[in-house]
Design brief:
about 110 residues; two-stranded antiparallel ribbon; globular; alpha+beta; single chain
Length: about 110
């Protein structure tokens, strides 16, 4: 059995009204102090994911089979696949829990 088959997977689908999210993104762009940073939904969604990991820490854990223990991660290091002119890039954004949405936006620009 391959290691990937042992990793727990889940799939969740929900429908939400994103009008407030669109307004938030527009407000961020309107008061943007960095003209090179275009606000997109990505930094907002990454920050939301980090907040969810704080609320549900078991989603940010791993299982050590040899010792039969669950290891809870101390920080939210989130990878996001991005298509760039140089090909597919999957940057690892470290310590998302301590970054603002604006800081995340700047990091996304730097790695893409």
């Amino acid at each position: 059995m391959s290691l990937a088959a042992k990793v727990p997977h889940f799939h969740y689908v929900d429908e939400i009204n994103c009008n407030a999210l669109v307004e938030l993104k527009t407000a961020f762009q309107r008061i943007n102090p960095y003209p090179d940073v275009k606000h997109t939904f990505l930094p907002i969604l990454v920050k939301s994911l980090s907040m969810a990991l704080t609320k549900y820490p078991s989603l940010n854990s791993c299982f050590k089979e040899d010792s039969m223990e669950v290891i809870f991660k101390g920080s939210d290091n989130i990878e996001v696949a991005m298509a760039t002119p140089n090909g597919l890039v999957v940057p690892n954004i470290k310590n998302v829990q301590s970054l603002s949405i604006l800081q995340l936006g700047v990091q996304v620009i730097e790695v893409s």
